């Protein structure tokens, strides 16, 4: 089969870039109203169609004159001119300045015909009308009788104190060049020119086709018993298309009906500049795409030497009208799909839209840990970031400033202002990796390892991604969730107490939340602690009459546990050990007799939800969760939860904010949480 | 009057910031469909409402078993279980795994009831149904007869090769915190959770009221003879509001009808979180705003010690419903209005919208020239930028990289990678300053001067502003306009040949376009040159029968000129000198006899347009312009136009691109331009 042959011969990533660059995604230019033009890109040069200002404009209060009439005038020998009338700002002049005459003007007034200069009022005197009192000068407030004649104590040259029509910008002058991104100031200039419709580059239309019977659109009902999952890629990629300056079009799910999938692909090709499909894992869906491209299109490339994204497909689809649409097939796992989209496809969409790569799309970081690598192909490694430079990007200081504060680039390995970069290796199938990783680091095929401290460039998943200011790890706990809500831009990985404490020791996170006893000895500081009541969660009314741990051992009850490494499990293990001591039995034997002791669930609520669903008779959990979700609770003890900060991070601004929250209000933090005490 | 009193006592800029911070612009949170949520900010924490995956999922191809049934199995002593059925991905299981049985599963399949682990197919053997051939193992392709029994050559623990429901994210777990900006990846996670409506921070509604009879909305007809101009501020500020995360509402022009203005202000206050008015220059408009605020509102501050923006007003407007709206009065000149908006108002809108200051909103630069300053109040100086670091922000390299390449921050005065910063001092009334300046530098009241090379922070007018890669200055010329269209992100200031050459000598621009003879001696390189025919432009058919310069001197013709310093004027001056020599007359006497010799217009087309409009009998101009606009032309000569680059900029990428354009095609550049020759 075609794909097998081509798969053996993986293309280099550069070839994939070139293949995509060879596709024409550029739509026709279009015209948009000025009010919708912000963020768009000019398709062609805009020349001024009118003069700004559109009239010769007096730029002082005074008198409009023919300059020649003032020649020779000075303080000793003023020239007198007849006052023919007045023009104020916003009026059409009703007066003409003939030789020997002048007209009163205010700033902003249209210069009357005949006049070519303005004499400022301070250099003039009114000569009273016949029969009036002889007057002082100036003011010319227009409220009194108008004088007949004005005396000028200075001469002016043509153009003096006149802003000529077009002096700001003249009709015919080049105003804005093609390719200009329209920000508020360009909108302002176009307004001044009276432009109502703006010729802009079109936004490439990007069709998104997703395949797979198991996919359900968010908002629709999900039937997990049939193995259904929500469609993540369509909405993620659609948001990425918009961000890159394209217009996404979501096509309905093709399911696994191949005729329908073929029809949708052809429809999308007819309607869009680019068609993306996010890979069905089923080989047969790939076959359909192949068939469509081979029958009516061109396959440019299949299979790229990159991890993830090896099965990337690049080609062209013929349109019914004789044109063609570009096609790229993305991997199926969400992080892989977004990575390949961001690396290969988004730049092509931006290029077609005329938009530059955003300056914030990459961040220079340094590896927090050593990372081995030897896969022989380009690896786009998902990574998380932690910005240790307090006041870094996340609180408004820009990247330039952050960089400017740091040492020079030739000693970046220990540059403390570069954010820490750590691999996120949850497996690309996990959607939570989407938010636990901030971007990807491209690791060359011939790189064996990245050293801790080594400078790396992180391509962020979005130019709007901001590295978190605080990284916490450890126990899953409802009070911790509340605490996080009070902080600006934290990240918390609920990896359990043991793993959290290990990571704190290894130096990446700022804080670890540790529940229950700890053995390790880490150089840390306890920022705050509280107690929580734990035990067995059983169905409402405790129908099996569970009274304690012994019931799990002695009776045929289905139990559900938390993973080793969580504080809850640690305390439960200790309680089992105590029971074993009491009975002089082996701990392992007791455990062996508990059905489901090894069946562990990831989040602290999960065992409770199993019990609620009737799939377990008892689960380990918190009184808080049991009461909140309406279960009964058999208490086994209290356990201490401590927020521990790495000693060398205590002075960080974000850690200090966390400490301040804890100083101020652990009582407030645990208020209303059943079984919690400060 | 109130304003006079308060004006004497100008507030410090910090007090203005505090006054604006004291206003409550925050709208209520709202709910938006997931597909519209990109770029918005979560109003509250989102916990997972469902488990992801929503079912226990086989993560290998193999057999679902009760783990206990496999205990003790190994290669030497396999365990046999009865095959009860099969489950494939995307199906609801129709089989239950009772003790002693197993079910075939494929990756992604829902685990059947009873089973708690998967044994991978490679560690199993099929036992043929009674009467069948004894079979090999594996495959389990389901196409042949189904075997009766499966032999397991390994034991598994509960949970092995099963991704438990919620293992990616569990129901009840904290998914995203309040204040999270929704980028594609967060959209992805929300999709996985099936979230259809997202609780987000509201966008502050910002009403924009503009005053002044002379203002006309872009697209409407303009009557310059009445002194009308297009309204620049409303559209500029509206675009700025959108950019800052607000929703602008444009109110119709209030004109100078004060009752109407009052009605509009109250309507805007009722409907908006913030009302902005961009200052009418008329003192009486300010009076109306005062009266409205004093009658129904609070005036917090009037007059700030900042240039521009001194007359800024900050207050509150009562609403009919008992609430209140914030009010800020902006200056009237476009650059001043945008500067005050960007410095004081946009941060408040972003804060209310929950958005951080964009990282690209400021740039660290260095002064290109010495700038004196001693005004005693904060100056927000409009500046242009020139990014000399080739490959800087403008071609995709981000600010971090640019900064990382440069030397350390403690030697920034001569840091060649900081963009050059030069003041733009066209007067804040000029709308072209909007696009000739990129942002503002805040200069402290006690700063006497900024040295050339001094590091400064430039607040860009928009985070999307990109400093130009090339700065050109000099003569206005249609071939230059064509040339500029072929370059990426250039800036060209048509200041005339003389001023352009002066600036080239002073070291700010990269290139100067010089037409006609030059006296100066600058260290430069000519990148390309062409000739253009210049002369007198007269009405079509040359009704006055103008034959040359002598007609202007000897007859009563209205002439219109270009400014001294332009190449056209320089050549005209030389021609007048030649005529004076011929006649043995004084040059000044001849000039004196030309009506309008001193009346100069800014753009090269402007004299021609004056002639076209019937306001002049002749103007200096190019054959190109005369022919294009349908005038007759009286040739006076050819003049050389040279594109000259500063010697120390010749190697810059942007200058090299320009040189390449000229090398390739001056003939192409001037093709079709009447009177031009390469």
TrEMBL record, chains A, B:
<dbReference type="InterPro" id="IPR001453">
    <property type="entry name" value="MoaB/Mog_dom"/>
</dbReference>
<feature type="region of interest" description="Disordered">
    <location>
        <begin position="396"/>
        <end position="421"/>
    </location>
</feature>
<dbReference type="GO" id="GO:0006777">
    <property type="term" value="P:Mo-molybdopterin cofactor biosynthetic process"/>
</dbReference>
<dbReference type="InterPro" id="IPR024370">
    <property type="entry name" value="PBP_domain"/>
</dbReference>
<feature type="compositionally biased region" description="Gly residues">
    <location>
        <begin position="133"/>
        <end position="142"/>
    </location>
</feature>
<dbReference type="Pfam" id="PF03454">
    <property type="entry name" value="MoeA_C"/>
</dbReference>
<dbReference type="InterPro" id="IPR036425">
    <property type="entry name" value="MoaB/Mog-like_dom_sf"/>
</dbReference>
<comment type="pathway">
    <text>Cofactor biosynthesis; molybdopterin biosynthesis.</text>
</comment>
<dbReference type="GO" id="GO:0061599">
    <property type="term" value="F:molybdopterin molybdotransferase activity"/>
</dbReference>
<dbReference type="GO" id="GO:0005737">
    <property type="term" value="C:cytoplasm"/>
</dbReference>
<dbReference type="InterPro" id="IPR005110">
    <property type="entry name" value="MoeA_linker/N"/>
</dbReference>
<dbReference type="InterPro" id="IPR005111">
    <property type="entry name" value="MoeA_C_domain_IV"/>
</dbReference>
<dbReference type="InterPro" id="IPR038987">
    <property type="entry name" value="MoeA-like"/>
</dbReference>
<feature type="region of interest" description="Disordered">
    <location>
        <begin position="125"/>
        <end position="149"/>
    </location>
</feature>
<keyword id="KW-0501">Molybdenum cofactor biosynthesis</keyword>
<feature type="domain" description="MoaB/Mog">
    <location>
        <begin position="207"/>
        <end position="351"/>
    </location>
</feature>
<dbReference type="Pfam" id="PF12727">
    <property type="entry name" value="PBP_like"/>
</dbReference>
<dbReference type="InterPro" id="IPR008284">
    <property type="entry name" value="MoCF_biosynth_CS"/>
</dbReference>
<dbReference type="InterPro" id="IPR036688">
    <property type="entry name" value="MoeA_C_domain_IV_sf"/>
</dbReference>
<dbReference type="InterPro" id="IPR036135">
    <property type="entry name" value="MoeA_linker/N_sf"/>
</dbReference>
<protein>
    <submittedName>
        <fullName>Molybdopterin biosynthesis protein</fullName>
    </submittedName>
</protein>
<dbReference type="Pfam" id="PF03453">
    <property type="entry name" value="MoeA_N"/>
</dbReference>
<dbReference type="Pfam" id="PF00994">
    <property type="entry name" value="MoCF_biosynth"/>
</dbReference>
């Amino acid at each position: 089969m075609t794909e097998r042959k081509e798969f053996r011969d993986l293309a280099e990533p550069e070839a994939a870039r070139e293949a995509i660059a060879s596709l024409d995604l550029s739509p026709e230019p279009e015209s948009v109203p000025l009010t919708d033009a912000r963020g768009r890109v000019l398709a062609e040069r805009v020349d001024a169609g009118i003069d700004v200002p559109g009239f010769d404009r007096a730029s002082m209060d005074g008198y409009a004159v023919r300059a020649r009439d003032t020649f020779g005038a000075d303080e000793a020998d003023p020239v007198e001119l007849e006052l023919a009338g007045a023009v104020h700002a916003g009026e059409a002049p009703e007066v003409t300045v003939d030789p020997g005459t002048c007209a009163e003007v205010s700033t902003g007034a249209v210069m009357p015909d005949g006049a070519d200069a303005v004499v400022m009022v301070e250099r003039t005197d009114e000569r009273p009308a016949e029969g009036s009192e002889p007057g002082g000068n100036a003011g010319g407030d227009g409220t009194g009788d108008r004088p007949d004649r004005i005396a000028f104590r200075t001469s002016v040259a043509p153009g003096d104190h006149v802003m000529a029509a077009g002096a700001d910008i003249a009709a015919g002058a080049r105003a804005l060049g093609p390719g200009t991104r329209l920000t508020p100031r360009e909108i302002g200039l176009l307004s001044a020119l009276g432009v109502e419709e703006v010729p802009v580059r079109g936004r490439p239309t990007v069709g998104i086709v997703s395949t797979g019977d198991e996919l359900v659109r968010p908002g629709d009902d999900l039937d997990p018993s049939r193995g259904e999952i929500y469609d993540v890629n369509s909405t993620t990629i659609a948001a990425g298309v918009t961000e890159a300056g394209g217009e996404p079009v979501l096509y309905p799910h093709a399911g696994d009906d191949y005729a329908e999938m073929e029809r949708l692909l052809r429809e999308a090709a007819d309607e869009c500049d680019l068609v993306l499909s996010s890979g069905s894992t089923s080989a047969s869906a790939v076959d359909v795409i192949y068939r469509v491209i081979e029958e009516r299109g061109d396959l440019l490339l299949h299979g790229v030497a990159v991890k993830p994204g090896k099965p990337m497909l690049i080609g062209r689809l013929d349109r019914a009208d004789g044109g063609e649409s570009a096609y790229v097939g993305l991997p199926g796992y969400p992080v892989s799909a977004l990575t390949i989209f961001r690396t290969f496809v988004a730049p092509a969409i931006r290029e077609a839209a005329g938009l530059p790569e955003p300056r914030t799309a990459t961040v220079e970081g340094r590896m927090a840990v050593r990372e081995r690598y030897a896969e022989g192909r380009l690896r786009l490694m998902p990574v998380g970031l932690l910005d240790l430079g307090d006041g870094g990007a996340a609180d408004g200081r820009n990247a330039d400033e952050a960089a400017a504060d740091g040492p020079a680039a030739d000693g970046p390995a220990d540059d403390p202002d570069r954010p820490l970069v750590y691999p996120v290796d949850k497996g690309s199938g996990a959607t939570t990796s989407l938010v636990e990783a901030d971007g990807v680091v491209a690791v060359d095929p011939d790189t064996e390892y990245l050293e801790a401290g080594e400078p790396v460039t992180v391509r962020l998943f979005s130019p709007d991604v901001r590295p978190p200011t605080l990284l916490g790890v450890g126990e899953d706990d409802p009070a911790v969730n509340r605490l996080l809500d009070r902080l600006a831009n934290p990240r918390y990985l609920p990896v359990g107490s043991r793993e959290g404490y290990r990571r704190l020791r290894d130096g990446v996170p700022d804080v670890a939340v540790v529940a229950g006893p700890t053995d390790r000895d880490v150089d840390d500081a306890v920022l705050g602690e509280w107690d929580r009541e734990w035990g067995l969660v059983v169905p409402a009314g405790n129908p099996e009459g569970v009274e304690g741990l012994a019931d799990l051992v002695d009776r045929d009850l289905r139990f559900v546990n938390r993973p080793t490494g969580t504080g809850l499990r640690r305390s439960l293990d200790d309680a089992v050990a105590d029971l074993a001591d009491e009975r002089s039995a082996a701990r392992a034997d007791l455990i062996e007799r508990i059905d489901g002791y090894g069946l562990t669930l990831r989040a602290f609520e999960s065992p409770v939800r199993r019990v609620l669903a009737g799939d377990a008779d008892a689960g380990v959990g918190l009184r808080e969760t049991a009461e909140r979700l309406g279960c009964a609770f058999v208490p086994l003890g209290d356990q201490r939860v401590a927020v521990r900060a790495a000693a060398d991070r205590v002075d960080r601004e974000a850690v200090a904010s966390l400490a301040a929250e804890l100083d101020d209000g652990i009582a407030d933090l645990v208020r209303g949480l059943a079984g919690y005490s400060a």
